[in-house]
Design goal:
The chain has 91 residues and is α+β, with helices and mostly antiparallel strands. It has two helices and five strands, in the order E-H-E-E-H-E-E. The chain has helices spanning 17-28, 50-62, and strands at residues 2-11, 31-36, 42-48, 68-76, 85-87. It is globular.
Length: 91
């Protein structure tokens, strides 16, 4: 089991990034959440088997078609692990 938070910067708000992330995470069987941040970034908690989390991190670097990802910064997550994947309120 692997759990990380990822902060995605670039043109990532207003381009369906959160909905796309939720869809991709569901296909990979991940739990966690995704949300916009007031600083213009998107933050995601990704929890699941190592290969699936690593694949999702690669996908985040690409993003959906309208996005322009500049960077994805990750940190290990030590908090509670959600049961499913949700789109949550802006931080």
């Amino acid at each position: 089991m692997k759990a990380v938070t990822a902060i995605v910067s670039g043109r990532v708000q207003g381009v369906w990034f959160r909905a796309w992330t939720k869809e991709q995470a569901g296909e990979l069987g991940l739990s966690g959440w995704v949300r916009n941040r007031r600083d213009g970034t998107v933050e995601a908690l990704l929890c699941g088997d190592t290969a699936s989390v690593d694949r999702m991190l690669v996908l985040l670097k690409e993003g959906p078609p309208l996005a322009k990802v500049v960077a994805v910064d990750c940190q290990v997550w030590a908090g509670d692990i959600p049961d499913d994947f949700a789109q949550i309120a802006t931080l």
